[in-house]
Specification:
Elements lengths: L2 H21 L1 H4 L1 H22 L1 E2 L2 E2 H31 L2 H6 L5 H27 L10 H25 L8 H12 L12 H7 L3 H14 L6 H25 L6
Antiparallel strand pairs: 1-2
Helix pairs in contact: 1-6, 3-4, 3-6, 4-6, 4-7, 4-10, 6-7, 7-10, 7-11, 10-11
């Protein structure tokens, strides 16, 4: 295939993925916006007024970056896992695999479709947050970089989950028992400096902690984690997950009998 043919194949997959979640926006974009608004009202206004400041900022300002990142993580992941497993279930993925389209193009198209949804929801939640508090970007480049890297990583995670899943029930196991607990324990609602030394050490094993704190640094300028170390760790995770997903796709895991 020529470069132009690669580009056509990639943009076709990407456009299909974007049209998929925008066509049913009432199911994909509206619910997370409503959920995050409830978080802002309940945790930010009602509970936050009793907690006071955290990290030198109002509690609302402190949790907003974490809530934005939580919406990006959840939607990047769920878009790819549901889309690719749906393609597997309907056997439509087989038509794509027998075409001359390279597997890395297929993987990239699905992943960036998840990134598009994650960033779209993240943008919507950011706009909604401005009705509740003021946000001042400390470093716009770190903010953009970490949110992009995070959405890529969890879109890859969704792809891997879809490859291993044997039923629609299987695609909910990882979000329910792994992703949700890690997100809530990832420093979204608190600073790990409040924890005893032992639990601070345990928290350092949570990869979401690095992403949330780096994003918070980009917006507020405060972080419990060294930003350079955090970005390096996320880069390693992305390379490892991309390699895993491409290997699974090349082997036809869950696709070829």
């Amino acid at each position: 295939m020529s470069v132009q043919e690669y580009w056509i194949a990639f943009t076709t997959i990407l456009q299909k993925e974007i049209s998929r979640f925008t066509r049913i926006w009432a199911q994909t974009l509206l619910p997370p916006a409503i959920t995050m608004t409830l978080y802002f009202v309940i945790f930010g206004n009602l509970i936050g007024s009793r907690i006071g400041e955290m990290g030198g900022f109002s509690y609302m300002q402190f949790i907003v970056p974490g809530l934005i990142m939580m919406s990006v993580i959840t939607n990047s992941y769920s878009n790819v896992v549901s889309s690719f497993y749906g393609a597997r279930f309907q056997k439509s993925i087989e038509e794509l695999l027998v075409s001359p389209t390279p597997n890395w193009i297929i993987l990239t198209g699905f992943v960036l479709g998840g990134v598009a949804r994650g960033l779209t929801v993240g943008f919507i939640v950011t706009i909604l947050s401005l009705f509740f508090t003021d946000l001042h970007l400390h470093n716009i480049w770190i903010t953009i970089l970490v949110v992009l890297m995070t959405s890529i990583l969890f879109a890859l995670g969704g792809f891997a989950n879809a490859m291993f899943a044997r039923s629609f029930d299987d695609i909910s196991i990882v979000p329910t028992f792994i992703l949700t607990p890690l997100t809530y324990l990832g420093g979204v609602f608190y600073s790990i400096s409040l924890l005893p030394d032992f639990w601070q050490g345990v928290s350092m094993l949570n990869p979401i902690l690095y992403m949330v704190n780096t994003f918070r640094y980009g917006i507020l300028g405060v972080s419990d984690i060294d930003v350079v170390y955090a970005l390096s760790a996320v880069t390693v995770f992305i390379v490892a997950m991309f390699t895993l997903c491409l290997t699974l796709l090349n082997k036809g895991k869950g696709i070829r009998s």
